[in-house]
Design a protein that fits this description.
The complex is a heterodimer of chains A (395) and B (832). Chain A is an alpha/beta fold and 395 residues long. Chain A is 42% helix and 21% strand. Chain A has twelve helices and twelve strands. In chain A, α7 runs parallel beside α10. Chain B is of the alpha/beta class and 832 residues long. Classes of the chains: A alpha/beta (395), B alpha/beta (832).
Chain lengths: 395, 832
């Protein structure tokens, strides 16, 4: 049941589309000017969408977003220019030259804010990444030999010149206005971190559809949100965003420390590095903004096997991050949170997957998540030991 | 020492009281300044110090000149004043002894002062707290938030931004103001008080981010609670001096006329022991709550403890409730009329920014025509508004105001003159008759539907073909004007604004090839209403349609004669009595693929068929229903039917009825899909369904339900039905109570017959129909309404119930008759 992704202006919602043979539906990202204001899924019939269908599917919510965008545009006219802090874009990658090439092509075409682009090549086995990067003059190549995404992120924080470091995944494509939108909220000195909206780059396979519905990347809506303790509990980071589309103030390094090298891809914990960092920011009283106009497009995993392992890795990462929060920050709330997640979400879904399989996710995905969760604490302890060893080896 | 021959450019005044180590650290930091140590002097104001601070300073050698001033214990205010009196430079910096200045501290203060001459410059005190727990985190957050807000470009400074620990001011100004008010003694708030006087005098405030020091705040919970009490006392002292501030200070919460405030007053004035107990419990619970990780409760406990301390301080300073009352009276007499700027957005935001910068008002009201869309309130002790303060305007706009700003661009200029002939007589004792009218927002064309329009008035707002909603005008606006009242009504309705943006803000749907439509009008001996109906249908703006009048078992030839006089109409006669027989006859006679039905007592809108075609443009849609609006609201019965019973309209938002989304219950509420007075079908869908059921509707014993049953059958079969409000007709509701009662009785029997038909056809499982009948219709709609009628009339509910009771018998009778009638011809209608 592939879904075509289309990026349209609000004025285009009246027209029809043809040539969509092979697709069951189309997901439209609707913009007013350059600002995304909503998304809508419309079924494809006989390879086409009739004129007026998209318009008919527009909801009252999108009208509100359109009104907000129109009035904002008008108010912008009388507004003084705000000086934005300087920014560096960091893309952490490992052996994915094709994706990286696409990502860099988009990054060099970003609106110019005087930014620099860093490629952090994490523990490379080949020189493919270096070769791709060499094709983009002005992009700095840095090799981080210590394996682990969080090591690469820390390296980026250390190497960046900008006051703000914006992170994007190598399998994501940035919208032209991505960086400007992501950096804009930092004009407020209280903001420590900004996350953006991540839309799917393609939904060609069932695994990608499933990932889209699971990850909730694009489910956070189209109006900005503010996260700050105590209104946002520090462990409730799932709603904030992900490392695929975030920017942090570089001086966080001094205030709350680096990303935990024992977490995230490249280590046994597989993920969770970004969310654990959000937790620490919130605990430190920092403010995180979700800024939907900071838009990028993420290519989800194509095969079912990759998806299942990614979901398992997600479970591991969540539990590993909680293990760290408990061990390093003495955060007892993780138990309540783990219990709540299991009782209110995981267990009922699992039961439902046996009773009414059609209404839930495939069972093996649910099991993969649970198994991943179980592995989390052990994985964190081992990864931490490894990271410490590596740290000693270096110093 | 004593090397400086030229007077220093700046004097740093450090008040201190028995904090030797802290003081020495602060002085050390001043030796590392980027500016020449000979260009500034330090005045240490020792307040009854007994810990040897003075000696410790003297034993060391300092690069800058240090003067000591000793005073007996009179409080921070007097101490700072004493320090200021010996200053030799033109600029004073007040620095607390627990702030470690950055090397660029003095330079930054000087630079900021040079930039805006005469300004009070508030530096940044970055908090360094002495502990790890939530209290210290909250304390540190409070400080950080304070300075982060000052750094925001749109920040509006208030008297509370004068943080006495780190600010600079011209000495002459300080002396002229009389310095800090020493009457505060050892209490708090002397800084706010000075800040207020400076604001009153119009002294500009600036924040210098670079004038930074690390503030070692040694507070803990106990000290902070004690300080809250001092703040309570200080606020009272300040309010006695400046009563205009009353509303903005927390003391006013205690004086409020609410049950909470009364309870609080009782607690702090009459049973202070209980107040102290509650405070002690709350403060005592905080460590426990923190250990448990209950942040929300901890925050509440902290608030309770602090507030009780604060109000205890207030009680201490005011003495008795009478003391508080005298403070309130003082405040009432000191009301200030703020200097206000009213601005209309029609002139543009740029112009507004210029006007605000020129006038520097205390408050700004932003208007759009008569409607206020944003307001920046006055606040004593805040600097006058400038354009930069308004830059957070979009945040100040609520969702409806955003809709409004977006919508006002889509409307043409407002007409200057009101339409003529509106009688402005308002009789509010009678909510009817209500005049009806139509306003097209694309041209502001006003069409009254009454010959003698007046208030109260109900106006259908439309944008070209698309109806947007009803505007209810009970009166004209205060000046007796019509259009301003219309504008206010439009701008007050978010749903209308949303539809307006959708209709006018988005490009119009591209016109498709208009398909041919057969309009079928079934009638029986009502030539007077039929004449009006036909006149409207013949005036439709649709290019490709035919009109078929079905004369159902007529008693006379009047209808045929009427139709014969009008060209281009087709006349068909159906002798079997029953509306559904007539409808099926009309379908058989129709030449086009789309068949639209309306009743003989309606008047179709000019764009009716365009709306029908719009609804059916999507090939997956098999049937369309449209909006039915009241033709007149002249009698109480008509208003009751429209407003209380629910009328015939189904709202102004298009909808698609699809079995997949509705579920069994939703499919059975087919009366919500539309009404027979305004419906259209594809011929193929009607053929697939087998036509209307002749046992139902007017002219048979069941007296209704034929239209609803068809909607239900279509949706239950999995076909899709669209509700399209842009296809709309006006319908004449029953004018008197007797006729209305009959109509509602027929509704009851018709609905019962419809449910019996559905049960016979098994279009949904019978179990669901039974459940729906008992739970949703009989209980949910009839009995519940009868028990709690509200505006409903029990007599009319009883009529509906009577219809229901007779439903089964009449259904049996009508079925029997239908089978009988079918026999001789046997070609039309639904097979039994």
């Amino acid at each position: 049941m592939p879904t075509k992704i289309l990026d349209i202006a609000i004025e285009e919602t009246v027209r029809g589309w043809t040539g969509l043979a092979g697709y069951d539906a189309a997901l439209f990202l609707v913009r007013h000017g350059t600002r995304p204001i909503g998304k809508v899924t419309v079924p494809v019939v006989d390879g086409a969408i009739l004129p007026g269908r998209v318009r008919g599917a527009i909801t009252a919510r999108m009208i509100d977003a359109l009104a907000a965008s129109m009035s904002e545009a008008e108010l912008q006219a009388g507004r003084a220019k705000v000086i934005l802090p300087s920014a560096t874009v960091a893309i952490c990658t490992r052996e994915r030259p094709v994706d990286l090439h696409r990502a860099l092509t988009a990054l060099v075409a970003l609106d110019d804010l005087g930014q620099t682009v860093l490629v952090i090549d994490n523990c490379p086995r080949t020189d493919a990444t270096q070769t791709v990067t060499a094709g983009f003059p002005g992009v700095r190549y840095i090799c981080e030999p210590q394996k682990g995404l969080n090591n690469a992120r820390n390296r980026a924080l250390a190497e960046a010149e900008g006051e703000i470091v914006a992170f994007i995944d190598d399998d994501a494509v940035a919208d032209a206005g991505w960086l400007a939108a992501l950096v804009a909220p930092f004009a407020d000195a209280r903001v420590d971190c900004v996350t953006g909206l991540t839309m799917p780059l393609e939904l060609e396979t069932p695994a990608q559809e499933l990932f889209e519905s699971l990850s909730g990347f694009s489910r956070r809506g189209f109006s900005p949100r503010v996260f700050q303790a105590p209104r946002t509990r520090p462990l409730e980071t799932g709603q904030i965003g992900a490392g695929a589309n975030m920017a942090v103030r570089r001086d966080l390094l001094a205030r709350i420390g680096p990303f935990d090298p024992a977490l995230d891809a490249g280590t046994e914990t597989q993920s969770g590095g970004d969310h654990e960092y959000f937790t620490r920011i919130l605990r430190g009283g920092g403010r995180i903004i979700y800024q939907p106009s900071a838009l990028n497009w993420h290519r989800h995993r194509r095969s079912h096997a990759e998806l299942v392992s990614a979901i398992g890795g997600y479970g591991t990462g969540v539990y590993a991050a909680w293990t760290r929060s408990f061990l390093s920050e003495g955060e007892w709330g993780v138990f309540r949170r783990a219990f709540g997640w299991f009782i209110h979400d995981q267990l009922p879904t699992l039961i439902r997957s046996y009773r009414r399989p059609a209404t839930t996710l495939p069972r093996e995905v649910l099991w993969a998540e649970l198994k991943g969760c179980a592995k989390g604490p052990g994985a964190y302890l081992r990864a931490r030991a490894q990271a410490r060893e590596a740290g000693h080896g270096q110093s | 020492m004593g090397r400086a021959e030229v007077p220093p450019v700046i004097s740093v005044v450090i008040p201190t009281h028995n904090r030797r180590e802290s003081l020495l650290r602060a002085l050390d930091a001043l030796t590392r300044q980027t500016i020449d140590p000979r260009s500034f002097e330090v005045i240490v104001a020792l307040d009854a110090t007994t810990d040897g601070s003075s000696e410790a300073i003297q034993t060391r050698c300092w690069p800058m000149k240090i003067t000591q001033v000793v005073s007996e214990h009179r409080g921070a205010a007097a101490n700072r004043n004493a320090g200021a009196t010996v200053a030799r430079s033109a600029r004073l910096i007040f620095l607390d002894d627990d702030i470690i200045a950055d090397p660029g501290f003095l330079a930054a203060h000087l630079a900021a002062a040079a930039e805006t001459s005469g300004a009070v410059v508030v530096g940044q005190s970055a908090p360094v707290v002495s502990g790890q727990g939530w209290f210290h985190q909250a304390l540190s957050d409070w400080w950080r938030e304070l300075f982060a807000e000052m750094q925001a470009p749109e920040h509006r400074f208030t008297y509370q931004d004068l943080t006495s620990g780190n600010f600079s001011i011209d000495r002459d100004l300080f002396v002229d103001m009389g310095g800090f008010d020493a009457s505060f003694g050892t209490g708090a708030r002397e800084d706010y008080e000075l800040g207020y006087r400076l604001m009153q005098r119009g002294v500009p405030f600036r924040h210098a981010r670079a004038a930074r020091g690390l503030h070692h705040d040694a507070s803990d919970l106990t000290k902070s609670l004690g300080r809250a009490k001092g703040e309570g006392i200080g606020d009272v002292v300040m309010l006695r001096k400046h009563p205009a501030l009353f509303r903005w200070v927390r003391v006013s919460h205690l004086a409020a006329n609410t049950s909470g405030a009364r309870l609080l007053r009782g607690l702090v004035y009459h049973v202070p022991a209980v107040g102290r107990l509650v405070r002690w419990l709350a403060a005592g619970a905080m460590p426990l709550l923190e250990a448990l990780g209950w942040r929300g409760l901890w925050t509440k406990a902290s608030l309770v403890a602090r507030s009780l301390n604060y109000f205890e301080g207030v009680a201490l300073a005011t003495g008795t409730p009478a003391g508080l009352q005298s403070l309130t009276d003082l405040a009432r007499s000191a009301t200030v009329v703020p200097n206000s700027l009213r601005f209309d957005v029609g002139n543009g935001f740029k112009a507004m920014a210029d006007a605000v910068d020129k006038a520097r008002p205390a408050e700004v009201c932003l208007f759009d025509g008569g409607q206020m869309i944003a307001f920046w309130p006055p606040m004593p002790g805040a600097e006058p508004l400038a354009a930069r303060h308004l830059q957070s305007q979009s945040a100040a706009l609520s969702g409806r105001r955003q809709l409004l700003l977006a919508a006002r661009h889509l409307l043409p200029p407002w007409p200057q003159t009101d339409p003529e002939g509106i009688t402005n007589v308002v009789d509010i004792t009678r909510p009817w008759p209500i005049s009806l009218g139509v306003i097209d927002v694309e041209s502001w064309a006003f069409t009254a539907r009454d010959t003698n329009p007046g208030y109260p008035m109900r106006l259908m707002l439309r944008a070209g073909q698309t109806p947007l909603g009803w505007l209810c005008l009970i009166t004209p606006n205060a000046e007796g004007r019509f259009w301003p009242a219309v504008r206010n009504a439009i701008f007050a309705d978010a749903a209308i604004l949303r539809r307006l943006i959708a209709a006018c803000g988005l490009p119009k749907t591209l016109p498709a090839d208009p398909p041919g439509i057969s309009v079928v009008i079934c009638t029986r001996d009502r030539t007077d209403t039929l004449r009006r109906c036909l006149a409207a249908v013949m005036a439709l703006d649709y290019p490709n349609f035919e009109i078929i009048v079905v004369d159902n078992a007529p008693a006379s030839e009047a209808t045929r004669d009427l139709v014969a006089r009008m060209p281009a109409l087709r006349y068909v006669r159906e002798d079997r009595p029953g509306l559904d027989w007539a409808r099926n006859c009309g379908v058989a006679a129709a030449r086009h693929e789309i068949i639209a039905f309306t009743d003989d007592d309606t008047e179709a809108d000019r764009h009716w068929l365009s709306g029908i075609a719009r609804g059916l443009a999507d090939p997956s849609i098999s049937a369309v229903t449209g909006l039915v609006a009241p033709m007149a609201l002249n009698t109480e019965a008509q208003v009751y039917f429209e407003d209380v019973y629910g009328g015939m309209g189904k709202g102004f938002d298009p909808a698609i009825k699809d079995r997949a989304d509705l579920g069994g219950k939703g499919v059975l509420w087919a009366s919500g899909f539309g009404v027979g007075a305004n419906m259209a079908f594809r011929k193929t869908a009607l053929a697939q369904m087998g036509g209307f059921d002749p046992a139902l509707d007017v002219g048979t014993a069941t007296r209704g339900g034929g239209d609803i049953e068809m909607f239900h059958r279509i949706v239950a079969a999995g076909l899709r039905l669209a509700y399209e409000p842009s296809a709309f007709v006006w319908h004449e509701h029953r004018a008197d109570w007797g006729a209305l009662e009959h109509q509602l009785r027929d509704n009851g029997s018709g609905f019962a017959a419809y449910l019996l038909t559905a049960a016979r056809n098994r279009s949904v499982p019978r179990r669901e129909i039974l459940l729906f009948t008992l739970r949703d219709w009989i209980y949910g709609w009839l009995i519940k309404r009868w028990l709690r009628p509200g505006k409903h009339k029990r007599q009319l509910i009883r009529a509906e119930f009577r219809g229901l009771m007779k439903g089964y018998a009449s259904y049996r009778q009508a079925r029997h008759r239908a089978v009988e009638l079918e026999k001789p011809k046997g070609s039309e209608g639904r097979k039994a």
